[in-house]
Design brief:
Strand order of the largest sheet: 1-2-3-4-5-6-7-10
Oligomer: single chain
Structural class: alpha/beta
Number of domains: 1
Number of strands: 10
Distance between the termini: 8 Å
Order of helices and strands: EHHEHEHHEHEHEHHEEEHEH
CATH architecture: Alpha-Beta Barrel
C-alpha cells in the first residue's frame, strides 16, 4: 500500500510532538506525508524526523504569502526538505480584486517554481465550485486563467454538489496529487468509510488516472492517530 497522509489529520499530536507525529504516520502504515506546517522545526530537523521514521515527503500545504513575502528563504527550505509539490491550501478569493491579484500571483510564481523543480498547486474546498457573490466559480477562473496545478479535494467537491470522479477526469492533466476524504454532504468530515462520499469510485478513478492519493481526515475522534488508523484499515480492505 502506498498512500500519503495529510499532517493536519494528526495536528493534535503534531502540535504536542512533531517528531512523534511523523513517526506515528509511518508506524500506522502511510508511505508519505504531506506537511501542514513544521512547528518551528528547521529543514534539518524535518529531514531527521522523516529519516528516523522511514517516511518520505509527498508535498506540503503552505501559504502563498510565504512565497510572496519571503521567496528566497521559503524556496531554500522546501528544496532542503526535498519538496516537489508546494500546494496552497486555500485563499481568500471573495472579491474580484482579490481573485485578480491571486491569478496574477499564480501566473508569476508557477513558472518560477517550475524552473526550480517544484510544482505549484491549489487545493480546493467546496466554495471554489459554487457560484460566488460576484457571479463566478473561482475554480473555473483558476483553470482558465492560470496554469497552476490542482490538488483536488474529492470530498469538498462532493460537498459542493460535484461528481468527484468527473472532476478528477476533467482535471487529470492538471494534477498529480488528490485528497481522499469522507464525510457528510453537509460538510462534516469523517474517517474513510464512515461518511457518504463515493470513496470506492474515487479510489478506482485515481488508480486509473495515475493520481497519488493523500488521506485527510479532520475529526480527530477520539484523537488524530485513532482517526488515521481507521482510514488505513478501510484502505486495506477497499483500496
Amino acid at each position: 500500500m502506498d498512500y500519503g497522509i495529510q499532517l493536519y489529520s494528526i495536528r493534535d499530536l503534531a502540535k504536542e510532538n512533531f517528531e512523534e507525529a511523523v513517526a506515528a504516520a509511518a508506524r500506522i502504515g502511510y508511505s508519505s506525508i504531506e506537511f501542514a506546517g513544521f512547528f518551528g522545526r528547521s529543514a534539518e530537523e524535518v529531514n531527521r524526523a522523516m529519516d528516523t521514521a522511514g517516511i518520505r515527503i509527498c508535498g506540503t500545504h503552505s501559504g502563498w504569502g510565504e512565497l510572496a513575502n519571503d521567496y528566497e528563504n521559503t524556496l531554500r527550505f522546501h528544496k532542503e526538505i526535498g519538496n516537489k509539490h508546494y500546494t496552497i491550501p486555500g485563499a481568500d478569493l471573495s472579491t474580484p480584486e482579490k481573485l485578480k491579484d491571486f491569478v496574477e500571483f499564480l501566473n508569476y510564481m508557477t513558472p518560477k517554481l517550475e524552473a526550480e523543480g517544484i510544482e505549484l498547486a491549489y487545493h480546493n474546498h467546496s466554495r471554489e465550485f459554487i457560484t460566488n457573490d460576484f457571479g463566478v466559480r473561482t475554480h473555473d477562473v483558476l483553470a482558465a486563467e492560470t496554469k497552476v496545478k490542482f490538488e483536488i479535494d474529492t470530498y469538498w467537491a462532493f460537498v459542493a454538489g460535484e461528481d468527484p470522479v468527473a472532476v478528477l477526469e476533467k482535471y487529470a492533466h492538471r494534477m498529480s496529487l488528490i485528497h481522499l476524504k469522507d464525510g457528510t454532504p453537509e460538510g462534516r468530515g469523517k474517517s474513510l468509510g464512515l461518511g457518504e462520499a463515493p470513496l470506492a469510485d474515487v479510489v478506482s478513478a485515481a488508480k486509473r488516472l495515475g493520481l497519488y492519493m493523500i488521506v485527510e481526515s479532520e475529526g480527530q475522534e477520539p484523537d488524530g492517530p485513532a482517526e488515521i488508523t481507521r482510514c488505513i484499515d478501510w484502505l486495506k480492505i477497499n483500496g
